[in-house]
Amino acid sequence: MAKNSKRKKLTIAIDGPSGAGKSTVARSLAEQLGYIYIDTGAMYRSVAFRVKERGISPEDEWALTQLASSLHIVFSTEEGLTRIFCNGEEITSAIRTPEISRLASSISKQKGVREALVKMQREMGKEGGIVLEGRDIGTVVFPDAEVKFYLDAERDERARRRYHEMLEKGVKVDFKETQEELVQRDHHDMSRIHSPLKRADGAFLIDSTHRSVEEVVEEMVRIVKVRIQQIKCVE
Ligand code: DC
User: Fold this and answer.
1) Nearest residue to 178 via CA among 152, 186, 63, 153
2) pLDDT tens sequence across 60-106
């Protein structure tokens, strides 16, 4: 390696619907590459959590924008576990309830909320060396990301994963209800006016339905390495 050469650190965008496995693969990919991992869905959930706590209406765009702009959100990932802090308070588990999932999807349609969070996400990712997952990373937050993925899976498989995830967390849920909520949330996230979920131009489509986390991450690492070679990054 040349003495002053520096390996360029990429920005990697992963988008896709709920239950496609984005968080697990994004965290593992970031770990393998030695990159930062950002779960942008957890940021929308943090806003939703405070909205509920303060009794703000999900339709009050002005109050939501003020709130989203004022939050200080910090992630910490250690030994495969990502913790999230909002204004110094840990809210890792509190934002994973079905109610917060619904509320997060609802408040995420507001333009002001999106603008505030996108600004934070761009600030977090400005140095590269980052894997961000969400719904609008490759389309809006970092349209110039060097590698973009769209991770999908069949609807029933996504519902099954969500259901088991909730049970493991000790949250009592009904499978049919989980499935219906997922369909509704997909519909909201894909049909909203501002930054709807869609596959970004140039995004690699990966279907995780019949594949393990390891297989998906392996494929992603292969694609990232090819990209690093293509843009002549010095290892
Ligand atoms: O990924 P998740 O289920 O934790 O996301 C919760 C909600 O946040 C999701 O229903 C839509 C919204 N979201 C968004 O609009 N844009 C993102 N980049 C990430 C999440």
Assistant:
1) 186
2) 999 999 999 999 999 998 887 899 999 999 999 999 988 999 999 99
pLDDT reading at 219 higher than 50: yes
Ligand 1 touching residue 105 (CB < 6 A): yes
| Domains of the chain: residue spans and CATH | 10-234 (3.40.50.300)
State both tokens at 29: 């990919």
- For 194-217, how does the pLDDT look when each residue is reduced to its tens digit (9 = 90+)? 999 999 999 999 999 999 999 999
Residue 16, ligand 1, Cβ within 6 A? no
Q: At what angle do helices 98-107 and 40-54 cross, to 10 degrees?
A: 100
- The answer to whether the pTM exceeds 0.90 is yes
Both tokens of 143, joined, read 């349209």
Residues 15, 133: Cα–Cα separation, whole Å: 6
Residue 205 structure tokens: 């489509």
Query: Residue 24 — very low, low, confident or very high, per pLDDT cuts 50/70/90?
Result: very high
Rounded to the nearest angstrom, the distance between the alpha carbon of 21 and the centre of ligand 1 is: 13
Are 189 and 17 in contact by the 8 Å Cβ rule? The answer is: yes
| Ligand 1 near 45 CB (within 6 A) | yes
Q: Is 20 helix (H, G, I), strand (E, B) or coil?
A: coil
Phi–psi pair at 89, nearest 5 degrees: -100, 130
Q: How far apart are CA 132 and CA 75, in angstroms?
A: 12
**Cβ atoms 113, 47 nearer than 8 A:** yes
Q: How far apart are CA 180 and CA 159, in angstroms?
A: 9
